[in-house]
Amino acid sequence: MRAADTYGVSDGLPGYLEVAGAVRMGAEPDVAVGPGTVVSMPTGGVLPPGADAVIMVEYTQEAMPGTIEVTRPVAPGEGIVRADEDAVAGAELVPAGRPLRAQDLGMLAAAGVTRVGVHARPRVTAFSTGDEVVPPGTAQLRPGQVRDATASALAALITESGGEAAPGGIIPDDRCALENALRTALGSSDMIVISAGSSVGARDETAAAVARLGPPGIWCHGLAIRPGKPTLLAEAAGVPIIGLPGNPRSALVVFRLIGMPLVRRVGGCTKPPAEPVVRARLERDLASATGRLDVVQVRLRDGLAVPVFGLSALLSILTTADGYVIVPEEATGLDAGTEVDVTLYR
Amino acid sequence: MRAADTYGVSDGLPGYLEVAGAVRMGAEPDVAVGPGTVVSMPTGGVLPPGADAVIMVEYTQEAMPGTIEVTRPVAPGEGIVRADEDAVAGAELVPAGRPLRAQDLGMLAAAGVTRVGVHARPRVTAFSTGDEVVPPGTAQLRPGQVRDATASALAALITESGGEAAPGGIIPDDRCALENALRTALGSSDMIVISAGSSVGARDETAAAVARLGPPGIWCHGLAIRPGKPTLLAEAAGVPIIGLPGNPRSALVVFRLIGMPLVRRVGGCTKPPAEPVVRARLERDLASATGRLDVVQVRLRDGLAVPVFGLSALLSILTTADGYVIVPEEATGLDAGTEVDVTLYR
Known about the structure:
2 copies of one chain form a homodimer.
Chain A lengths: L14 E8 L14 E4 L19 E5 L2 E4 L31 H9 L12 E7 L3 E2 L11 E2 L2 H11 L3 E8 L3 H12 L4 E5 L4 H12 L4 E6 L3 E2 L5 E5 L2 E6 L3 H19 L10 E6 L3 E2 L5 E9 L2 E4 L8 H5 L2 E5 L5 E2 L4 E6 L2
Parallel strand pairs in A: 1-2, 5-8, 5-9, 6-7, 9-13, 11-16, 14-17
Antiparallel strand pairs in A: 1-4, 3-4, 10-12, 12-13, 14-20, 15-19, 16-17, 16-18, 18-20
């Protein structure tokens, strides 16, 4: 319609307008709006020539066949969406540095963009080490053997953080075997993870093998985290290398804190997605040493965060937990009843 | 070691024990512990016969070659992890009804479980409707045409919620075409989604086509949500059907609230994963009508949730937002400064 045709109309002084035709969805209008006439159109139709406003059908009534009654003035531009209102030519549709979200794909499709340049998934090679470690498919364990629990869990976390998990296999406690495997992996990996042997000697061997790969070498060996103290951070030939503690629980805790953000970063993600967090009250006191960050697994029950305790190596602490609470470095512990952020496992 | 050999030892009265041999990782011990002797072992090694406790090497010192000095008593069982301490035979390793998490895969691997029965991904067929809708790859739009923005965004949300997205294509505004497409899809889908034409007439046609599919038919048509009012919930031949509003933004908002939980539920997930949420203070007043749930997109800036406003149909509201705030049915609005939960888009 033309907005001017509605100026001054009211319940007491209705305006009457002749319906000159209709606009069909998805087609160019073949009818125009002139003084005293309107054109009917569906939501999302194209504005016909001569029109400068749209009135909702709910605000009109049929006075006689072919003529509508209007009792409410309409402003120019009302009911109209400009073709460039969602995005003007030249505008950034989606920023770089974050994963494409559902609505980003929708916006790209709307703009006719069916191909976009994205960062390659970083290839992360993960090694397990230790003479005692055997593949998960081993039906019968000999005394002293354990199945490789870390490799499949790590692969899931690597995938979740946008990486491509490359299985490196199980390397025996042998100086040359690990060094050779690492050298081979350097050429085909964007990042390397080693779940180190759990004994002191095996840890030293891992560090020695990493150090021999060349500069810059080991950045640090030992983090003020519990669990996760014997973590190794290194770099060789531009490839970041993380040496994880030997026990699966510690390895997974550390990889969530340090490995997943690194995979995202190597994958070009500068705006990492947020973790799912709920607030809860601590069910009991948590002790912690100052200067050390503690990761404490908890279950959620009636708004309470109930710590899951047990020996540090137990995977069941992780499988029965709903998430974890961080006791920061500067705290000497947290009192029962403290409101804490629980980062949820998903 | 035998704990009894350390009873009564102290700094002033050290005990001396002979090292009878060593345990190797991953191998059965070939040496036993007798009175007055110890066996050296790495962390994670198998306890040799005769031993009932382990003392950390850090608490011992070499008195002379082959003999260690102990100044601290050790309790029976100290330093020992029982073989069934992480999971006893017959225990549930991972509960049903939730996605397998990284640590669950680790636990299964540790137990030698390399195959598990899981729920099939529900197959969700998504149709777009409307004479004006053309495929995203259409380079040049004719007047009145829009590219299908909803289909690719919906496919991403279906995948994110554990479903398998089956593209149903674009169905013209034709009574028989939609009904036929729906009938065909019923046989091969666990759930059907229709992003309905945006005009009143097209919405009615969608409802009519769904109603003709048979009992139980339409559960409800219209939800007290904004955006998303014209949502249709139905069921035919045991397949849940959601009719979404025609404009992409409303369709995506409703699908997050209603469609994604339904995909998870159809996929056997009774314990849905938590959404990522952060708390923030509302930057300005939000008005809302009582009895209607409002979904308001926000950006996060310095701990403030800043509403993103614009015409309801604009996808850019979703692409520029960091997440959304829900104004519940019973509220007449939220005041500036209110602490709100922002569910983050990821």
